[in-house]
Every structure is written in C-alpha cells, then in structure tokens.
Recover the amino acids of this structure.
C-alpha cells in the first residue's frame, strides 16, 4: 500500500487543476459570449471546492486510481444560459469545447516543461527525489490525466462536452427530441461508463482513451508514458 501513496498523491495533484481549469474555461467562454450565469454563480473561481461533484470528482477518479486504470472524471457542470448568446448553437459549441481545449493546453504545457528539464534530468539521473517524483511520475501523469479528461469529455454522451458537438451538427428538427433525451443524461452516462464494460466484458472507454490520449501523450512527451 505504501508504494501506492506517491501515485495517489500525484494523481490528486494532477487531477484537481485539470478539472478546475476545465470548468473555469467553460464559464469564462460563456462569460465572453455575454452570459453572466457562471460568474454570478461563482464558478469562475479557481477554488476546487466550487467545482466538486461527489461522484465524478471524488469517487470515480479514486476508484480508477486504486485500480491503476486511466484517471478521468468530471466536475460539477458550470451553469450557463444559451439565450444570452447571439447564436445559441454556436455559443453552446464554443462553451462545450472550451473545457477540453483547456486540458489540451495544460497537457502541452506539461510536455513542454518535461522537454525543458530533460537535459538536467539526463545529467543527474533519476537517483534524486525531484527527478524520480516530479519528472518521472508527476509530469507524465499530469500530461496523461489532462489528455484523458480532454478525450473523455469529448465523448458525445450527455452531460459530457462532446454532446454539444453532437447538438451542433444535428439537424434542427431533431433538437427538441435530443434535448428531451438530455433530461436522462446521468442514467445514460452511468450506463455507458459503468454498465457497458460489464455487459461487454471489456472496457471500450479505456480502450478509446489509450488509443487517443495514450498515443498523443507518447508523441508529445520526451519518453513513453502509457
């Protein structure tokens, strides 16, 4: 158990800023488009407590950490009102993509720091705490978790961000029916994320994350990390 403590600590330190910046960027995008809802609700704050969802932010990631699976999850959705947007469908799409875009920027930033530190680590080796934990564990995990969150949230499943892409390309005549389905977003989400792996005896979401986030992480990071 003791050997898992650094892994769990690094996972938490990576996951919290990833979800906070993800949600803040949703609210920031909506604010820039003229919607004050997120700002009025205090959701433009970098305080993690403002964004915590009991299951998506705590229970689900903790289960995945303990199982040494891909760490992903979600925070409490940022409230926004598309009626404030000049073009509601376009605004909804921009707000939806702002969160995953934030995670992509953070992943690239983490990879950039790793490349900048590589000469120093090569000269000292991994025989010190900084190199072992900061470079060998934290930075790879930071990049992976942000990419996992990015691609996980791009799934076209309500209430994930990918559903806004789906709504944008869906013909207008089908939108009322689609929005009715969104009322059942949480049960559908739980069925797909938790129930589907048991039904299929395989985890298609984990396979998808490894194929997307995992391969991109290996491409941008100085060494293979997935």
């Amino acid at each position: 158990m003791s050997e898992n403590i650094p892994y769990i600590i690094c996972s938490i330190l990576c996951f919290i800023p990833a979800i906070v910046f993800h949600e803040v960027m949703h609210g920031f995008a909506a604010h820039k488009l003229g919607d004050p809802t997120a700002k009025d609700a205090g959701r433009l704050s970098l305080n993690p407590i403002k964004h915590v969802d009991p299951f998506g932010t705590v229970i689900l990631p903790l289960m995945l950490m303990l199982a040494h699976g891909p760490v992903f999850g979600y925070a409490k959705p940022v409230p926004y009102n598309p009626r404030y947007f000049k073009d509601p469908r376009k605004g909804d799409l921009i707000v939806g993509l702002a969160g995953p875009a934030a995670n992509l920027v953070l992943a690239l930033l983490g990879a950039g720091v790793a490349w900048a530190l590589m000469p120093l680590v090569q000269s000292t080796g991994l025989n010190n705490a900084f190199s072992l934990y900061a470079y060998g564990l934290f930075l790879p995990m930071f990049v992976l978790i942000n990419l996992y969150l990015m691609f996980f949230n791009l799934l076209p499943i309500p209430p994930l961000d990918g559903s806004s892409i789906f709504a944008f390309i869906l013909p207008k005549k089908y939108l009322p029916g689609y929005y009715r389905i969104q009322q059942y977003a949480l049960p559908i989400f739980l069925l797909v994320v938790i129930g589907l792996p048991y039904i299929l005896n395989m985890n298609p979401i984990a396979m998808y994350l490894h194929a997307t986030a995992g391969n991109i992480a290996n491409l941008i990071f100085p060494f293979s990390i997935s």
The CA atoms of residues 28 and 44 lie 7 Å apart. The chain has nine helices and no strands. The first helix runs from residue 5 to 32.
